[in-house]
Amino acid sequence: SIDPQVYRSEKPALDLQRYFNGTLEGHGMFQDRSGQVQRRFVVTIKANWAGDVGTLDEDFLWSDGKREKRVWTLRKAAGDATGTRWVGTAADVIGEARGVVSGNALNWTYTFDLKSDDGKRYEVAFDDWMFLIDERVMLNRAVMSFYGFRVGEVFISFRRL
Predict the structure, then answer these.
(1) Cα–Cα distance, 161 to 146 (Å, whole number)
(2) Distances (CA, A) of 62 to 22, 105, 123
C-alpha cells in the first residue's frame, strides 16, 4: 500500500469537512478481478457536520434497478506527521474504517460485510483512495480483496452540487 504522505504537498488540499458538506452526486462502477464491469451506479450523498462528526447519507441506484442505502458517521481523530486521521462507521462496515488525509488524498481501509445475491455474506477488505481534483470533483478508486486475493475494484467520480 502507498503511504498517504507521498501526497502531502498535492493541491488542492482536501478538507474532508468542507468537501463532504451539502449534496453530492457520484457515478461509479464495479469491476470484477478480470476487469469486466459487472454493475454501474449513481449515488446521491447528503452530508452534514456537527463539530468534528459528520454524517454521509448515501442513496445508491444500481444499473440492475436495485436500491441501496448506507449512512456513514465520520469523526476526526488525532492528526500526526502523516496527516489528519479519521474514523468512520456504517452498518455494513465491520468495526471501524480508518482513514488519513494528506494533501489532496484520503486513504480509507476497512472491512465490509458484503451480501451476495444468493444470500451469502463475505468479509471483504477495502483499500479505498479518494483524490480531490478541484473544489467540486473527487475521484475514488477502491480495491477489494478477500483473504488477500484481489476480487474487484470500485471507481466513483463525485461532484458537489
Answers:
(1) 35
(2) 22, 26, 21
Asked if residue 16 lies in contact with residue 54, where contact means CB atoms within 8 angstroms, the answer is yes
Paired with 94 in beta bridges are 111
CB count in 10 Å sphere of residue 138: 22
Please state the pTM of the whole predicted model: 0.94
Contacts of 78 (CB under 8 A, 6+ apart): 85
> How do residues 87-108 score in pLDDT, each as one tens digit?
999 999 999 999 999 999 999 9
Sign of CA dihedral 97, 101, 104, 107: negative
Dihedral sign computed on CA atoms, order 20, 145, 97, 78: negative
Match 472491512 to its residue by C-alpha cell: 111
Nearest to 11, CA basis, from 105, 130, 136, 113: 105
Instruction: Give CA–CA dist 87/78, Å, rounded.
Output: 10
Measured between its terminal Cα atoms, the distance across the chain in Å is 32
